[in-house]
């Protein structure tokens, strides 16, 4: 699917890049200028000095088709094997089998406990809207940073971002609880957050990649919000004990792994902007057990 990459010259004092990403948009789509205009009017400080004509500006905000992708099967350059176990979440919990569809995860074939969603969990339109919002926010207020990735934004600091991603993150947290058999919560109130890698930033470390590290988490989730091969090239997550090849998520796909245990890195991007939704989660000790005890009025189970 063709993706559109474009650069705006933004004339304002900002520490962030002026690159913007738009992905998975068909050139035939007719933009809805009113929605775009009202979006931009919220950021009056931004002046776009090089703006393509409307017809050639397919924008994720103007898409109304959810283009969730079919499950991937052995994509070149991706470390994941074509053969793997499939888990499906349903009302009863976790099911093992070859069924496919929304809420389905595949276990990666190594000694660790890591999963990738079997296909996109998030449609391209939603991913694109989040990316648009993140890049607009970064242009107006700049990025924050935590120790590894230098360009981050906390979802909870921004109600517009939080509204866009909370349905996605709620479903991912349910999947984490089921797949890792426990009760998980975010490690900090600033979780989840967005990471932006930008190939146009001269500094490499933290801006175009992150070196091997472990997270302060029990489980980390990563959702690819921009499109690999369209919005950026390179990138991907390398989990050391899984092997040297990066796990290269398609837009909307999700990776779950034991971030505090598995040494991992973000491979350098060679072009464009790679945007991730990242959540650090910790296991709530005795979470489920405590609830059971309370609910039966102080009687203790063996
Ligand atoms: O870029 C990646 O895929 C990894 C990101 C990461 O490990 C982190 O933000 O802690
Ligand atoms: Fe990490």
From TrEMBL:
Region named Disordered: 1-38
Statement: the UniProt record of this protein carries the keyword NADP: no
Keyword Nucleus: no
Keywords assigned: Iron, Metal-binding, Oxidoreductase
Compositional bias segments (type: Low complexity): 16-26
Entries under InterPro entries matching the protein: Oxoglu/Fe-dep_dioxygenase_dom
Domain Fe2OG dioxygenase residues, every copy: 188-283
A molecular-function term among this protein's GO annotations: metal ion binding
Family: Belongs to the iron/ascorbate-dependent oxidoreductase family.
Protein name: Fe2OG dioxygenase domain-containing protein
């Amino acid at each position: 699917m063709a993706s559109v990459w474009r650069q705006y010259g933004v004339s304002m004092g900002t520490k962030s890049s002026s690159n913007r990403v738009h992905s998975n948009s068909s050139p035939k789509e007719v933009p809805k200028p009113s929605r775009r205009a009202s979006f931009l009017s919220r950021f009056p400080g931004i002046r776009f000095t090089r703006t393509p004509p409307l017809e050639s500006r397919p924008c994720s905000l103007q898409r109304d088709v959810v283009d969730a992708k079919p499950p991937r099967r052995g994509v070149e350059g991706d470390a994941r094997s074509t053969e793997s176990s499939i888990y499906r979440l349903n009302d009863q919990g976790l099911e093992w089998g070859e069924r496919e569809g929304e809420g389905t995860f595949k276990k990666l074939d190594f000694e660790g406990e890591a999963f990738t969603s079997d296909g996109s969990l998030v449609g391209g339109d939603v991913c694109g809207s989040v990316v648009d919002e993140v890049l607009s926010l970064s242009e107006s207020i700049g990025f924050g940073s935590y120790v590894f990735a230098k360009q981050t934004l906390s979802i909870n600091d921004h109600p517009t971002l939080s509204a866009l991603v909370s349905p996605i993150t709620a479903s991912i947290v349910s999947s984490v609880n089921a797949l890792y058999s426990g009760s998980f919560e975010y490690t900090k109130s600033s979780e989840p957050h967005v990471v932006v890698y930008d190939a146009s930033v001269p500094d490499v470390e933290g801006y175009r990649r992150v070196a091997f590290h472990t997270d302060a988490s029990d489980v980390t989730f990563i959702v690819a919000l921009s499109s690999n091969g369209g919005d950026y090239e390179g990138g991907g997550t390398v989990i050391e004990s899984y092997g040297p090849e990066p796990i290269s998520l398609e837009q909307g796909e999700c990776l779950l792994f034991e971030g505090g245990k598995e040494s991992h890195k973000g491979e350098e991007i060679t072009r464009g902007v790679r945007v991730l939704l990242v959540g650090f989660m910790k296991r709530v000790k005795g979470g489920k057990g405590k609830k059971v005890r309370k609910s039966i009025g102080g009687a203790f189970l063996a």
